[in-house]
Amino acid sequence: MIGRRPIRRALISVYDKSGLIPFARGLHEAGVAIVSTGSTAKAIAEKGIPVTPVEFVTGFPEVLDGRVKTLHPMIHAGLLADTRNPEHLAALERLKVEPFDLLVANLYPFSETVDSGAEIDECVEQIDIGGPSMVRAAAKNHASVAVVVEPLGYDGVLAAVRGGGFTLEERKKLAALAFRHTAEYDLAVAGWMGTVLAPEEGDAPGFLPPWFGRVWRRTSLLRYGENPHQRAALYSDDVGWPGLAQAQQLHGKEMSYNNFTDADAAWRAAFDHEQICVAIIKHANPCGIAISPESVADAHRKAHACDPLSAFGGVIATNTEVTCAMAEQVAEIFTEVIVAPAYEEGAVSILARKKNIRVLLAAEPAIGGVELRQISGGLLLQQRDGLDAPGDDPAHWTLAAGPAADAATLADLRFAWRSCRAVKSNAIVIAADGATVGV
Known about the structure:
By secondary structure, the protein is an alpha/beta fold. It folds into 3 domains: 9-196, Rossmann fold, CATH 3.40.50; 241-361, AICAR transformylase, duplication domain (Cytidine Deaminase, domain 2); 370-438, no CATH class. The protein has helices spanning 20-29, 38-46, 54-58, 73-80, 86-95, 110-115, 120-125, 130-140, 154-162, 168-197, 257-270, 296-306, 308-311, 324-330, 347-351, 407-420, and strands spanning 9-13, 33-36, 52-53, 102-105, 146-148, 216-222, 232-237, 248-251, 276-282, 285-292, 314-318, 335-340, 358-361, 370-375, 378-383, 430-432, 435-438. Helix 1 packs parallel to helix 9, helix 8 (130-140) runs antiparallel to helix 10 and helix 12 runs parallel beside helix 14 (324-330). 33% of the residues are buried.
């Protein structure tokens, strides 16, 4: 194929050594000369695989506790030389630098170290410098060098080596993955430094930083967007609260854009209540919400009774396990989606009597966090409403007029108040006995 370049010399420098030894052995058996760094070279050599330590190439020892290993012209010239350019080739010959055809590198575990609760100095020590420099150099020079940053790609590398090397198109894709890898790494470091190492002074809380970046990964392509002529996809990130984007689908057709928006609204509405709760949503507005001290089936029956007509083709969410009794009720009603944190044994089989109903298993959402909303030319960020304002607590309510409400009425008022959040505009919720009777 066009642009296929044989791989004769490889530089390997990895923190994550998963699959390293079989990979290095495969390279050696294919006739590839291996240059490697520090503990990577040691691990390869201990298995009897020929490897040249990087200090033999640079003529300079590893120093400063490993902070300086590959930051040397003998390494970076070999990664950056465009072997299509006669002047570059002449420079390599003059300087006695051998070019690399392949770089295999992954980076220090900075994010994992931060997540472990490590001290600041330890986190700083896990900021990789030489690794990203090599990865960026090789990715820039993809015309001459292939770069691999994930151990999961090793089998594909060996197949390419045995097949005569990577094509130009393959090297371009590897380069794009490599720059994405370093970009994600830099975002993690920059975000941590701005919020932990050098937080903003003043009144702005930590969740409203002067600058922030997040990585969103596409997890699925959707059939279409809000309307059939709009294209759409689902993305998730590593720092958001658990929710619908991470849900496991147990049955049914693939989710649509509107399914996700309604399911998210129902999911949040159900978890606005501490008691067993069922929320039914259609077109992002509630058809019914109910709580029950008895059972989830009872809560579902009461929620459905609020507006059975609108609930047809709606989305159901509950904050507790779906029992077989509730599943029997749902199976009698046309429902687009049901989402819950658990299902009783046999419940999914009952729901699956309806071929197209989408059955989702989702983790209980975390409390707090932030919400993002895109506007023309910008982005709005706000603290997620945890229903924790003083007015949300009945203990802070005062009697304005009329006779004092009894305990049952206050309980219904509290339920109606919390249910109002699920209504999109000019909310009026009428409730009785732990259920909406009008929205």
